Amino acid sequence: MTDFPSPEPLLAALPAARRDEVARRYAVLGPLLYRRLASVYGDLADFDRWYGGLLAALGALHAARPDELLALDARREQDPGWLTRQDMLGYSAYTGHFAGNLRGVEERIGHLSALGVTYLHLLPFLRARAGENDGGFAVASFDEIEPALGTMDDLEHLCAQLRQSGISLCADFVLNHVADDHPWAREAAAGDPARRDFFHVFPDRALPERYEATLAQVFPEAAPGNFSFVPNLGWVWTTFYPFQWDLNYANPLVLTEIVGALLRLANRGVEAFRLDSTAFLWKREGTGCMNQPEVHALLQALRAMVAIVAPGVLLKAEAIVPTRELPAYLGAPDAPECHLAYHSTLMAASWAALAEQDAGLLRSVIEGTPALPAGASWLTYVRCHDDIGWKILADEAGSTDRLAAIADFFHGAPGSFAAGVPFQAGSKAAVHATNGMAAALAGFDTAQGPVARELALRRLLLVYGVALVFGGMPLVYMGDELGMGNDHAYRDDPERAHDTRWVQRPRLDAGILARRDEPDAWAGQAFAALCALSAERRRTPALAASAPRALLDAGDPAVLALARGERFLGLFNFSGRSVEAAPPAGLDWPERVVLEPWGMRWLQR
Is 49 helix (H, G, I), strand (E, B) or coil? Predict the structure, then answer.
C-alpha cells in the first residue's frame, strides 16, 4: 500500500481544460479519501490496484458531466453557505401520488414555487422490484426509471426545468440493499461467484444465528428475522424484507459500482441524494450491525468522491438515530460526511409536546442538539413517508412508560384529538410507532365543527413553526400544505394492507389542489397559513441554519421560547389553554405576550 497515490488515473480521461480543477480538488480531498478507504480495505492484497481503478472510474464520470452542471458546481463551490440560508425550503412526495409521473411533476412546479420550495425530494422513482417492493425502496435498476413514472430522458428534462425555477431535485439512493430481481442478485442466484460476493451469503444457519443474537428486527411483524433462505444459494442477509438483499461492503467492488450508479444520476441532473439505510452498511458479529465505524469511513469517502467529481451535489443521511448519534453523520471540519441529516428527535419531540401539553421534552432535545459543522444543515421536518418511532426519544424521556403514553395518545386514547394508526401493532413492542398524516395527528380528522378545525390548524402550524424556526432546511411533506388527512384505501390492496405506513401516502388529485385558493376551504386555509410562514422565514436572516440558537424561560412549562440571534424570538404554546408568556427581563422584548391555545408568535425587533 502506497502513502498517497498519484492522481494520474483520475486525470487520464479528462479533457485538458478540466484537469487543473480536478487535480486541485484531489490535492485537497485525495488524502482523506485514500485514508478512509485504506482504513476499510487497506489489508486487501490488491488494494492499490483497486484504488487506481476507482480513480479512473471517477475521472470518466467527471469527463461525462455536462457543462451546465459544471457551471452549477462552480457556483456552489464559490458559495459554500448556500445550503444554510433561511430561504431554503424542502418538499417531499411520491412522484406518482404527487403528479402521476415525472412529466406531471413539471406541471406542478408552480405549486411548489408558490410555497417557496427550493428543494424537491421525490421518493423512489428508479425501477423497482416487480410486485411488492417496499414503496420503491427495493431497487431493481439504478439506471432505469419505473416505467409508469417515465424515462431517463424525462428525468433529465424535469431536472432542467426545476433548475430554471431555482429548485434542486433530490432522489432516494438506497445504499444498503438491492431487490432480489436486480441483475446483481439474479447473477448471484444463477451461480456467478463474483456476484455472490456482492451479498452476505451463508451455507447454513450457524453463523446467521450468532448474528441474530445481537440484531434488532426492522419489521418483526411483517418480515421477522434478518436472514432469508434462497434456493440454490443459501441464507442471504435481508435486514428489511426477504426481497431486499443487503450488499456486502467488505467487497470494494460493491463500493465502485454504487458510487458509479450515484454519479451517473448526478450527471443527469439530480442535485441531492437521500442516502437510505446508511446505518446498516457494515456487519460485525456481536453488535447490532448499525453505526459501525466503517459506515462513517465509507460515507466520508463517498462525500470526498462526490466533491471531486460533482461538488454541487448534496448528500443527506437517512439515519433515524438518537440525538447523541446524529453528529457522526455530519462529520467534522477536517472529515465532512453528509451535508444534511434528518433531525428526527426534534420531529418526534414536537409531537410529544402536543400530547403532553408540555414543552419539556422538546427543550431537552434542543439543548442536546450539537453545533453544526460549517456548510452542514439539519433537515427539520414534521412528517414523512415513514412512521414516527418514539424510541429515538428514550434518552430524553427517561422511561418507556412515558413514551408508551405518548404513542397511545396519538393512537386515539380517550381525550385525544389525534387519529394516528399504530405501526406493527401485532408485535410485542412496548411502544408502537405511529403513522398518520400531520393534519390527522393534529386533530383535523376528528374535528367536529369550525372551532375544532381551527384548533387543529393551530396545532399543525405549531409543529411546522418549530421546524421553520429551529435552524436548518425545513421540509414540507406532500399534502401537509393542504391539510390532507389519512388515506385508508391501502386496506383494500393486498400488497399494501399489511403496512400501515400507506395511511400517510395519499394522492394529490386536481380537486384537492383546486381548493388551495378557496379561503373558506380547509385546504385553502392551511395553504395560505403555511405560505405566510414560509414567506416570513425567507425575510428573516436570523433563521438561517448558521445563526445562533438559545432557549429562554417563558415562565410556563407549556411554552417553548426559542431565540435566534439577537433579533428573533419564537414563542410556541403547546397547550390547549391561553398563556401569558413572559420573556426574560432585560431583553428588548414585550414584557408579556398572550398566546392563544396552541398558538405561536414570531417576534422581531
Answer: helix
Residue 448 has pLDDT above 60, yes or no: yes
Amino acid at 106: E
Residue matched to cell numbers 398572550: 594
Among 73, 180, 318, 480, the active-site one is 318
Flag whether pLDDT at 605 surpasses 90. Answer: no
> In degrees rounded to 5, what are phi and psi of residue 20?
-60, -45
Residue entry with cell 400544505: 481
- Mean pLDDT along residues 506-531: 95
Q: How confident is residue 374, by pLDDT bands cut at 50, 70 and 90?
A: confident
Determine which one of 146, 154, 181, 276 is catalytic.
276
What does the pLDDT average to over 395-422? 96
The distance from CA 280 to its chain's CA centroid, rounded to whole angstroms, is 15
Give phi and psi for 181, each to the nearest 5: -110, 15
Question: For the chain, what is the largest distance between any 2 Cα atoms, rounded to a whole number of angstroms?
Answer: 75
- For the record, the C-alpha cell of 49 comes out as 490496484
Residues 559-591 have pLDDT tens digits of 999 999 989 999 999 999 999 988 776 667 777
Q: What is the pLDDT of residue 2?
A: 59
Annotation marks residue 495 as catalytic: no
Is the per-residue pLDDT at 1 higher than 60?
no
The C-alpha cell at 16 is 485538458
C-alpha cell at 333: 471540519
Q: How far is CA 567 from CA 244, 394, 534, 549, 591, in A?
A: 50, 34, 18, 11, 16
Cell numbers found for residue 277:
439505510
Question: Looking at this protein, which amino acid is placed at residue 290?
Answer: M
What's 145's DSSP letter?
Answer: B
227 Cβ contact partners less than 8 Å away, ≥ 6 residues apart: 202, 205, 208, 211, 212, 235, 236, 237, 238
Burial of 511 (0-12, 13-18, 19+ CB in 10 A): exposed
User: Cα–chain-centroid distance for residue 593?
Assistant: 35
Q: Is the pLDDT of residue 407 over 80?
A: yes
pTM exceeds 0.85: yes
Which of helix, strand or coil describes residue 343? coil
Q: Helices 360-368 and 344-356 meet at what angle, rounded to 10?
A: 160
Whether 141 and 184 have beta carbons less than 8 Å apart is answered as no
Half-sphere exposure of 333 (CA within 13 A, CB side): 2
Q: Which residues of 454-479 are buried (b: 16+ CB within 10 A; e: fewer)?
A: ebbbbbbbbbbbbbbbbbbbbbbbbb
* Full DSSP string of 210-277: HHHTT---SSTTTS-SSEEEETTTEEEE-SS-TTEEEB-TTSHHHHHHHHHHHHHHHHTT--EEEEET
Task: Give, in order, the Cα–Cα distances in Å from 496 to each of 131, 241, 441, 490, 491.
Answer: 11, 14, 21, 6, 7
Structural contact between residues 446 and 419, judged by C-beta atoms closer than 8 angstroms = yes
Only one residue has cell 440484531, namely 215
Q: What is the dihedral of CA 307, 308, 309, 312, to 10 degrees?
A: 30
Say whether 318 is catalytic: yes
